[in-house]
Transposase (Streptomyces shaanxiensis), 356 residues
Amino acid sequence: MGVPRRKLKRKARLACRFTTGTIRIEPDGRHVTLPRLGTIRTHEPTSKLLARIRAGAARILSAAVRHERGRWFVSLQVETTREITRVDRPDVAVGIDLGVKHLAVLADSSGEIRYEPNPKRLDGALKLLRFHSRRASRRQGPDRKTGQKPSTRWEKANCERNKIHHRVANLRTDSLHKLTTRVRAEYGTVVVEDLNVAGMLRNKRLARRVADAGFGEIRRQLTYKGRRYACPTIVANRWYASSKTCSNCGATKAKLPLHARVFTCDACGLVLDRDENAARNLVALAAACITGTGVAGDQDTPRVSKPRGANRQTRRQRPGHHTGRGGRAGGASLPHQRRKETGDRRQDTETQPALW
Ligand SMILES: [Zn+2]
């Protein structure tokens, strides 16, 4: 987020990437061989990849090793051909409104609404975390100022505490993957919002819940999994007022406070759940983008930046960003440049530069 930060040795994640040398999967399906490290046993079997390599369908290009959540992982970059699986309902679009109350509200173009509950994994673990954090803080931890080394007892307590965090993170990863895979295997077109997650994380009242929900990750997974099914992902402009617009008549409210959970239209009298209204607006965006109706235009220019002229309501850009000397924010958002970058994936529209 923001400007690149200097990499610190004590903070950097332990990771490295091998591009040359001996990188292979051993024929027993349980070991990998990496340059400098030699043959290492893996926790999970490698048999699936091994079968592909044996059949000549895959070729290993590189390997990345990283330390994450107390474990070492190896990722192998592989060149392979992939069959494009057909989604269940290719003609149906879905609008996804992400939120804290419900993790996602899915409104599809056939009019069906589905609510995905927010598992709130962190909330469930907070009590246990409090206990373990308190225990760790009673023991002699490390101090960089005085050069104090942590005691063995602190190390043990810290390890116990980290285990809880790791478990929460694993549970979250699991449920997010299940959600995004399910959505992508069913619907043809997916419309998501371009949420300012980095900005929301700066709000101290929202940050914990937003981070626990993993909004940014949901969008990332939906986008790359869409490519797997050769299905488009439409990212609504950050300034598109999906919550404030009436999904029935299109009237836009000037203000809608966060605590107002029910949307009431002043123009046509529609009363609807706030998130459901937003999801309906998003799915309407897909129709405008794909069929060529509305302002969003034909397929040649897959830009959905100005549907109904309702966008960019508050501030324009963070100060300093648009005045930059051809910086990222200014340069990357020019439409003709962006189309060149994303020329190979036809429908994969990104109307905003990914700022996070
Ligand atoms: Zn209305």
Notes: The chain has nine helices and 13 strands. Residues 89-117+189-314+327-341 form one domain. Residues 91 and 237 are 23 Å apart (CA to CA).
